[in-house]
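Reminder: ligand-aware prediction takes two inputs, not one.
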Amino acid sequence: MSKPTLERPGHISLSPVPETTLNLYTQKEPLSATVVDKYRISDLSSPNYCWHVVLDISASQMARKYRIGQSVGVIPTGRFHNAEFNLAHNQIRKGTLARKIRLYSIASTCWGDDWEGNTISLCIKREISEDIESGELVMGAASNYICDVAIGDQVMITGPVGKSFLLPDNPLDYNYVFAATGTGIAPYRGMLIELFNQGFEKEAWLFFGVPYSTDILYDDEFRYFADRHSNFHYVTAISREQKNDQGKRMYVQDRLAQYADQLVSLLNQPTTLMYLCGLKGMEYGIYPWLYSIGSNLVNLPDGLSIQDIQDLPRSSKEWPRIERARDKDRLFKETY
Ligand code: A2P
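Here is what comes back for the chain with adenosine-2'-5'-diphosphate:
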């Protein structure tokens, strides 16, 4: 259990970030990667059990070939008690197949946590809930499988997947506004390590929403960068401990609104990119805010006014149109 260094060791030179490569490994021909490190990243007192899992991918085609912002698939093998339990449960309840792949965002840069390009890291929260009708325990097969692995175990992975949530090819030329909820923070960890180790000098904001302060993931790493780089602004929204201006739960979109003075002109610059990663619900708060500040990241779909969008319920069928009307070259999203 060792925390990775956030600064590139002197002897490592940062060659260009690789071209975007897709699907080097598939469900039919997955990569067997070895678990080399694993540690809890939510506080020990938190019931949201989140783990940082580091896999050795050296000598594979994926080494140095994935890009931060991409995902990999994890194939739960059923070797572990929890996964077996849930796969059986799913098969009975929903008829879903065992060995279903679950995608997870990569949380390391292409240089890995070892800076040699031998590893890939994942940030995973155990999915644990109860079936509403039966009260039976439901455990996510893939998340519990990967959180249960031990150092030395082999994990079957596929990918890399995704080409629309990446840093641009010339990342130092842009400003960034990153917004995340929960484990949606994963890609930003690697992005920030990558940016600051390449000499990033423009502006970067990170808005991070979690239920309790015990659930803030990689807090020490983000503070590390915030302490050293005045161009990095790190803001948390702790929904169940803090209240927004209306006395409701504090969400990332409320924090964005609080920092509007500093964000409005920044967000309108053509060299500013915005990224949303995490709960889909975040979009229903962030789009209306972007319209309200007259942001050029969003465009009005035909027949809708800004007021219409402010008043739109989450169930509205207009949301996909609003989503499509964003500037897709500058506003990226990976929500679920
Ligand atoms: P809450 O659940 O308190 O309402 P996690 O994935 O670890 O559960 O964290 C998700 C975070 O995102 C929580 O703080 C959660 O708040 C918050 N959240 C829930 N719904 C929304 C939404 N519609 N917009 C923004 N944040 C949200």
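The pocket of adenosine-2'-5'-diphosphate is lined by residues 48, 181-182, 209-211, 215, 239-240, 249, 251-253, 279, 281-282, 284-285 (CB under 6 Å). The mean pLDDT is 91. We will return to this case in the review session.
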